Amino acid sequence: MSTGRAVGTAIGVLLLILVVGALVIAGIVGFLNALPDPAREAEAPRPIVDSATPAAAPEASGPETPGAFRDLADPDWLDRTAAAHGIPRRALAAYAAADIRTRQESQCTVGWNTLAAIGWVESRHGRLQGGSIDDDGVARPHIIGIALDGTNNTLAIPDTDGGALDGDTEWDRAVGPMQFIPETWSRWAVDAGSTGNASPHSIDDAALAAARYLCRLDGSLETEEQWIRAILSYNNSLSYQQQVATRAERYAEAAD
Fold first, then answer.
1. Of 100, 109, 113, 124, which sits with the fewest C-beta atoms within 10 Å of its C-beta?
2. Treating both helix axes as pointing N-terminal to C-terminal, what angle do 75-85 and 238-254 enclose, rounded to 10 degrees?
3. 3-state secondary structure (DSSP) of residue 214
């Protein structure tokens, strides 16, 4: 083989190696780009906080008497919104009233849609396990979560209430349509409807307690940082935040 031919062959081989190498690198880059980006994964969506829950006329809301809480929102708005979203009207009345009440009490904007999204994720608005929310606002049968014993991706939370709320004297279980842990409920319980009994099984009490709990960190949920921090304090899970955000966004976008 001549020197010229040998050189040409060597150059050809080198070029082939470079081309193959470039293709391999391109393939690797493409593969890496296709992988989930942890930074992007951590940026769950923050929905619109619908702060325009229309209140009923002042004379319609009445004094602080049993039943007044659930009547805080405009009835026509409740009818339209419940029908549009498939949210039980009794549950929607509680979410809307809790939003209105927290704005009246502390100027904290939660958004009815945020509370409704949590209610959907936690218990499908009280319909989990084949139940429903009765006209008095109580979810029947009572919704009791799994034992928080450290299995099934749960934290291990030994019993804190002697089984009074959840019937379990060994481990705590989340209870009610908004799924409060007994220890948290003991600190945030509220008798929203002035019935004389604060119960996590009442959607009125649970929705208002949830709203106040969400407001405790920043006094509002109107910015992205505030909303994310509040939701993660309710359940420190990225997938949970994403589920709530997606559902809340859907509710807000279709609201009138």
1. 124
2. 120
3. helix
Helices marked H in the chain = 3-34, 38-41, 58-61, 75-85, 89-106, 112-123, 182-188, 203-215, 224-234, 238-254
Instruction: With residue 132 as reference, give the H or E element that holds it.
Output: strand 132-133
Q: pTM to 2 decimals? A: 0.79
Reported as a single tens digit per residue, the pLDDT across 137-192 is 999 999 999 999 999 988 899 999 999 999 999 999 999 999 999 999 999 999 99
CA 158, 127, 142, 138 torsion: positive or negative?
positive
| Integer Cα distance of 232 and 211 in angstroms | 14
CA–CA separation, 28 vs 49, rounded Å?
41
The length of the chain in residues reads 256
Alpha-carbon 70 to chain mean position: 21
What is the C-alpha separation between 205 and 97, in angstroms, rounded? 11
List, for residues 83-132, the tens digit of each pLDDT value. Answer: 999 999 999 999 999 999 999 999 999 999 999 999 999 999 999 988 99
| Helix or strand holding residue 139 (H, E) | strand 139-140
Nearest-angstrom CA–CA distance, 244 and 233: 13
Angle at 225 between CA 241 and CA 113, to 5 degrees: 50
